[in-house]
């Protein structure tokens, strides 16, 4: 199966694409290597890379964690070619909630007005993280196409992170106390809470971390919001988040998608104590959590190694290279 695909497209592909496709599409490749191959393709950001990721999304049967990351990358690559497969993924009730959520969020990242009717179909879905994500994605698409966007967006050189966020950071205030109040208000619309969340991420000092940690550990209404805080802690790489992330990872009553983000964020913060914490959960009964810890330990290695980027991009003509 894998080889048929590669042979069919071989004329268009560079050796790099072939190598990365072999690694990503083969279920026997260790998960952490498939992750690195995926992020290499995301960095290449060209049509063959999108095709390979879509092929993997259609074929993958084993790993919900990989499926959710494939859908995430397609959104971050802003690939219009991926819209159909993302709509199918979002609509498939046999898939894990985390995968369907990520597909909806990626449609928001690609931000095409004509996908709004697709997202509207799931606004009342029983899967709450999916319903909430669709609501945020619709608001984001409308925002992206409104005059507010030009008014509020920071100049590209001022942007702290290069990722496409599901909701823009608020520009109304930079007061941590005010942002904390907005974020922790469990009655407020998610859109407003998320805007505070991303503003706190951009501030990224210890007080901002403490406000985010408080929301992650006290919120009871939205696992989606709690998982997003875990995700931004990975971007912030602030050691002040480690105690809170460790408690969330260890909390077996917490939703797997939140514990997953906590694990990956710990791998990315990568202070020395993180290694033992992650190792402890590599045999967690929840597959997504233990797989996240395995991937996070590889991210930890990468952070410790001082390598240039979390990916593998073999040089042209180079065979097996590695990391
Ligand atoms: Fe997510
Ligand atoms: Fe994730």
TrEMBL record:
Needed co-factor(s): Fe(2+)
Record-level Gene Ontology MF annotations: deoxyhypusine monooxygenase activity; metal ion binding
Location of this chain's protein in the cell: Cytoplasm; Nucleus
Biased composition (Basic and acidic residues): 146-160
Cofactor binding notes: Binds 2 Fe(2+) ions per subunit.
The keyword Nucleus belongs to this UniProt entry's keyword annotation: yes
Chaperone recorded as keyword: no
Binding site for Fe cation 1: 68-69, 101-102
Keywords for the protein's UniProt record, in alphabetical order: Cytoplasm, Hypusine biosynthesis, Iron, Metal-binding, Monooxygenase, Nucleus, Oxidoreductase, Repeat
Biological role stated in the UniProt entry: Catalyzes the hydroxylation of the N(6)-(4-aminobutyl)-L-lysine intermediate to form hypusine, an essential post-translational modification only found in mature eIF-5A factor.
HAMAP family: Deoxyhypusine_hydroxylase
Full protein name: Deoxyhypusine hydroxylase
Species assigned in the record: Mycoemilia scoparia
